């Protein structure tokens, strides 16, 4: 298991920022958010200020800090505007060079490279956009392994976005990961959300692992009045992804993707802000299905209910995780991992491997 101190230690957190988030590929955005010229998405967490921007169809990633006097350039989480610093009006091009430069003669000289923004490699897997702040030698395809094909397929199922929100957690980022890798807690924590939908009582199915990434189906049981429910959702029967489960994917270190029977989709993004602070950035989607105006009118309240349910699930988990964060300081025993919590065990193994710089460590049986 991961030592308890790793969930609250400042030195350990700083090492995680350097080893796991300061280098290697991390999810930053979806292509749909960056579809138009000048569209941008920012990613801020401990040790990072990233902006990914569309320059006439090309995606480029930079440190979101002006090279002149360190002002943040793009202020929103996402939007559409030039890469223009609001302090002195420096306007940056796709190479990170300030082509729009008031009083340019005072700055241009023999060392113009120092005026450029720090650039980061950016790559895509289907709809999913990743950045490598460390500029390492591992390609995105190598990082994703077998889950590259899974992500590419999942991106093709995403329809219109219905919700975008950030939910702060007073908890370590690893607790958020561990929470979604199992559904053992669902029948207790989600008695009025997941359980009435039919999930939480059956063991996980079809668990798959590759290089720290994992996926699994959480099978659901048909509920009373199931036929009525299916008739109400009949306008979505042509959806491409149809499964009677909650399907969940984790891509190390910061991406969650899930599907509820292919009827709705969720993309979660971890932004670690401190040893005991994490922002969860969430996006919800409808399935990609052509809807008539009549069916559109039926789908809108379904999407609204799905969004409310998604936030309620997150809030139910958040309350527990924040209690765990307080409890982990006081615990005098190492905790335990059940035989069915195989995805957590795999996460711990890969986390320890990555923190050791790629050297296979020996995990502790106790604290």
Describe the structure in your own words.
With 367 residues, the protein is α+β, with helices and mostly antiparallel strands. It has two domains: 25-143, 3-layer Sandwich (Rieske Iron-sulfur Protein), CATH 2.102.10; 145-355, Naphthalene 1,2-dioxygenase Alpha Subunit, Chain A, domain 1 (Alpha-Beta Complex). The protein has nine helices and 17 strands. It has a seven-stranded antiparallel beta sheet, with helices on both faces. The protein has a five-stranded antiparallel beta sheet with strand order 5-2-3-4-8, with no helix packed on it. Strands 1-10-9 form a three-stranded antiparallel beta sheet. β2 and β3 (48-55) form a beta hairpin. The protein is globular. The chain starts with 9 loop residues before the first helix and ends in a 12-residue tail after the last helix. Mean pLDDT is 93; it is low at 359-367.
Features:
7-stranded antiparallel sheet; globular; disordered C terminus; 5-stranded antiparallel sheet; about 375 residues; Naphthalene 1,2-dioxygenase Alpha Subunit, Chain A, domain 1; single chain; about 30% strand; Rieske Iron-sulfur Protein; alpha+beta; about 30% helix
Give the helix/strand class: alpha+beta
Proportion in β-strands: 25-35%
C-alpha-based Rg, rounded:
22 Å
How many angstroms separate the termini?
7 Å
Helicity range: 25-40%
Number of domains: 2
Order of helices and strands: HEEEEEEEEEEHHEHHHEEHEEEEHH
Query: Major β-sheet, in short?
Result: 7 strands, antiparallel
In the CATH hierarchy, what is the architecture of the largest domain at level 2? Alpha-Beta Complex
Number of helices: 9
- The oligomeric state of the chains shown is single chain
The low-confidence parts are 359-367
């Amino acid at each position: 298991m991961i030592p308890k101190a790793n969930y609250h230690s400042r030195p350990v957190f700083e090492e995680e920022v350097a080893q796991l988030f300061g280098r290697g590929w991390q999810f930053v955005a979806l292509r749909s958010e960056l579809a138009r010229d000048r569209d941008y998405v920012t990613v801020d967490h401990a040790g990072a200020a990233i902006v990914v921007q569309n320059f006439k169809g090309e995606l480029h990633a930079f440190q979101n800090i002006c090279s002149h006097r360190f002002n943040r350039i793009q202020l929103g989480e996402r939007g559409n505007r030039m890469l223009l610093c609001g302090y002195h009006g420096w306007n940056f091009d796709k190479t990170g060079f300030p082509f729009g430069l008031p009083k340019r003669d005072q700055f241009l000289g023999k060392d113009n490279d120092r005026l450029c923004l720090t650039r980061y490699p950016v790559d895509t897997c289907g709809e999913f956009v990743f950045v490598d702040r460390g500029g390492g030698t591992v390609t995105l395809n190598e990082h994703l392994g077998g889950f590259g094909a899974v992500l590419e397929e999942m991106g093709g199922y995403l329809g219109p976005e219905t919700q975008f929100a950030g939910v702060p957690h007073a908890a370590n980022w690893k607790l958020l990961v561990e929470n979604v890798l199992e559904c053992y807690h669902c029948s207790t924590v989600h008695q009025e959300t997941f359980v009435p939908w039919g999930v939480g009582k059956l063991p996980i199915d079809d668990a798959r692992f590759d290089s720290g990434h994992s996926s699994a189906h959480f099978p659901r049981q048909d509920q009373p009045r199931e036929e009525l429910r299916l008739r109400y959702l009949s306008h979505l029967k042509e959806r491409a992804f149809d499964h009677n489960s909650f399907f969940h994917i984790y891509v190390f270190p910061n991406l969650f993707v899930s599907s509820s029977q292919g009827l709705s989709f969720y993309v979660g993004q971890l932004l670690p802000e401190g040893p005991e602070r994490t922002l969860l950035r969430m996006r919800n989607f409808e399935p990609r299905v052509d809807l008539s105006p009549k069916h559109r009118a039926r789908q809108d309240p379904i999407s609204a209910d799905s969004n409310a349910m998604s936030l309620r699930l997150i809030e139910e988990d958040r309350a527990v995780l924040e209690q765990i964060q307080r409890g982990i300081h006081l615990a005098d025993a190492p905790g335990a991992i059940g035989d069915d919590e195989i995805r957590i065990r795999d996460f711990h193994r890969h986390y320890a491997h990555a923190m050791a710089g790629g050297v296979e460590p020996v995990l502790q049986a106790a604290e």
